Fold:
Amino acid sequence: MNTRMLATCTALLCLAIAAPVNASLTLTPQGITDGFTLSTFLSGYTPSTYGPLAQGVLNGKVIAPSAFTGGSFTGTVYVFNDVDNQTLSDAITSSPYTAQTGNPQFAMTTAGGQVYGAQAFGGIYEHFSSNGTFTPIPNLQSDGLVSFLGMWTDPVNQHIISASNMGLVDIDPVAGTFKVIVPNLFPDGVSVSPNGQVAYVAISNGIGAYSISTGSPLNFWAVGHGTDGTGVITGGKFNGDIVVNNNDGTVGLLDPTNGNYSTIADSGTRGDWVSLDTNNGSLFLSQQEQIDRLTCGNCTFGTTPEPASFDLLGAGILCAAGALGRKFLM
Structure:
């Protein structure tokens, strides 16, 4: 790990120490007016330095690794049905895993119907099976590529756009190849525009936009709040806007056309990465002790799901809507 990466890690760990506990992420009046819905997907994690940071969807099930508690670490990868208001005891399967790094939380993403991930700050890139076990993506390890922090799937070609030890990279997980998009860029959370052209990254307490094809910087918004995970909205009145999960327990909405920023949820613990639920287009929001789910009315996050997926969404989410109120590792 180079000096710049080490300094970033140190700063992020300091932020984590000051994280609040025993709070509950709640929509603000603005978030309710804007038509967002917030529910709890999974609770029961012991509040820790970092929450359950990222999730993936495989064969309709949700893969969710355990939270990081420090000290002697034996991690667990859980597999759940995609319904709300679950606890760890509801897991279909659970598989232990061993730490590869000093902070063995997984960044994860779903690409081409498969789930991939890597442990933060130096883990190798892995391919997950349906029971939560994983094996390395061929060739990447021999090329010296390891993770740094967040990752997201390019919805156009199903490549993985990831923060790595080499900078922001574009990984073809099927071929086991990669190219560097922006060298020496070490962001936290990463997401991709629905057209596959722009990478949005959390860096320097703001959100930066970079061209995936050229690596050129396109814009930067200094929104504060300990920016972390991001998800881009598709469809509806907020099409193209960016939801930001923040370390200070808030969730913001950024309009990249004019830089306007509003808070749509607050009173949370420590927000970190976010993950796309490819079953229904909702957004998983990591908190220190649980995983919340954000939906946005007549829009989705990432590509629009098939209509049948909304039927599944209704059973798991809409009945929970009546209970509105209820990494960094990163």
Summary: Confidence is low (pLDDT under 50) at residues 3-22, 304-330.
